[in-house]
Design goal:
alpha+beta, 6-stranded antiparallel β-sheet, Arc Repressor Mutant, subunit A, Jelly Rolls, 2 domains, 217 residues
Length: 217
């Protein structure tokens, strides 16, 4: 079964449950709180983050349709340790975790698709850790831009993309200061690898960024 068919099945399942709308900036789950249910995103984007001992926001993951979460809590009863905040105005549906688990058992194709996405995310996190541990600020920022563009960017040409983000968001995703992120971004702009306007990042040729990533470690 292809991804579109899986997405249709997921949408049909969650359509039975109440819909809620959250404005940008609202926290839908607080760290330490019991989630209200499994959240299925219908539209918009929600970020998952934790707060460092220094009080900085560190973004762990981002979700958009057709994602549903938090599945570690739903499957393993793992206590929630993260904040989930609306990045762009979002419509969601909330389903009881026991209903979602029953749905996954009855639909192994959906469960396999979920597992596939988990493994892709894990692979991305492992490589991100390599850059965090052994790379420079330039490398970390470069890798985060590439991953974000591939996940959330809108294609504008053969290899060009537009991404809705800010230097503050990119800094939070990479664990570097906003000042450092701004300085490194200027280098990419001077190399004509990026163009940035208020809230919008343009990548004229993603391949050129990918060519840099190996040598950046």
């Amino acid at each position: 079964m292809n991804n579109s068919e899986v997405t249709t099945k997921v949408e049909k399942f969650f359509s039975k449950y109440p819909e809620k709308t959250y404005d940008s900036g609202m926290v839908v789950i607080f760290a330490g709180d019991e989630p209200p249910g499994v959240i299925s995103i219908q539209s918009g984007q929600i970020i998952q983050y934790e707060v460092s001992p220094q009080g900085d926001k560190v973004i762990i993951n981002s979700f958009q349709s057709p994602a549903f979460f938090p599945m570690s809590w739903a499957i393993n009863k793992t206590p929630n340790a993260y904040f989930y905040e609306v990045q762009t105005r979002a419509k969601v549906r909330l389903a009881p975790p026991e209903d979602v688990l029953k749905f996954l058992v009855q639909n192994p194709d959906v469960a396999l698709d979920l597992l596939s996405r988990v493994y892709r995310g894990t692979d991305g996190l492992l490589r991100k850790m390599a850059h965090l541990m052994g790379g420079s600020a330039n490398s970390r920022l470069l890798y985060e831009i590439i991953i974000s563009v591939k996940r959330f960017g809108e294609p504008t040409g053969k290899n060009s993309y537009v991404l809705q983000t800010t230097e503050t968001d990119l800094a939070a995703r990479t664990g570097i200061s906003r000042e450092t992120a701004s300085r490194e971004m200027r280098k990419f702009i001077e190399m004509k690898l990026l163009e940035i306007q208020r809230g919008t990042l343009t990548v004229p040729d993603l391949r050129k960024l990918e060519d840099l990533i190996g040598s950046a470690l």
